[in-house]
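Sample entry was shown:
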Amino acid sequence: MAIDFPAEGAALLPDLVELRRTLHQIPELGNELPLTQSEVLSALDGLPLEITLGRSVSSITAVLRGGKPGPVVLLRGDMDALPLHEESGEEFASANGRMHACGHDLHTAGLVGAARLLAAHRDELPGSVIFMFQPGEESPGGAQPMIAEGLLDAAGDRPIAAYGIHVGPGPLGEFATRPGTMLAGVNDLHVVFRGVGGHGSAPHLAQDPVPAALEFGTAIQSLVTRRFSVFDPVVATVTQLQAGTAVNIIPDTATVGATVRTLSKDSTARFGPLVTELAEGIAAAHGVSAEVDWVEHYPVTVNDDAEADFALRTLSAEFGAARVITAPDPLMGSEDFSFVLEEVPGCFLFLRCTPADTDLETAPNNHSAHIRFDDSVLGDQAAALAQLAYERLRAG
């Protein structure tokens, strides 16, 4: 007899909504989430799970061993919030100066729901499931510490597939993913142009770093368009310009900061040396020096083609083709689930959940202090994760 995960998920909805709203009121930052971890452990209490807590971060790794032999599948939900004062107007809004403005409270509650659904069918489960409750996705990155502490070997055998769902704005209840590149890699760029300060009335007696910084801020756009293919795009956005303390003082230094998004390993690897060459060349032309700090944070999130196709087919069969779309393009946001997908073939999906009373054209986006998520999707979110794990284990 087929398992009706959506119906069972709907039955769990009140409990999942309550859990999500509890988590929403106690948002925590980074890799230290003691309150969140405690709430999740309480929500998992009584389930037949093998639970391991992180040693260096507030993670939870829970293993469900099925009643039948088979492979291993990993499901992931992230738990951390953002340093943002909430202005959503929700009755359960956070008041501690932090906010679940990216929906990680839904991710956590949805993964708890998936654990409950699969645990209820443990005897029918042909294999094992690892539930990855991860801190620090927003910063400084919790996936790598979990992997280093043995996440992928928690069930004995390594997972054959990994899945994660991220909520976001859009038509309520719509799932979206795509084969190949799903999200960009994120990299930080900081350049310090160092000269010799002086009086603003006599720039010829100084070595002014400001013109070099200003030229670099525009030249980086030419680097993007002249050294990288339009079919492997790069987005370089200068977000910081810092120099000087008074209008009549030429400063010793001028600093430029930028976020750089890449869509392939190749463009990530090439950008650092090229931007260093550019900064040093401009600095030399102005008689100053340049110190370049290029930091590769999260790699590109790449869905396995076969796993993306499997996810699209599985969710279409379960929820109807009208609710499941193939995203036409990657998104330039980033995700440290990319570290998992570098080790395990898998698929990262989006679940749209803009409230029905909100105009889709003007709805706030993730990371906005005003964003609201319709948590009526939690039953389907839990069901989708459970269905993906169950069907992938059956496929072997």
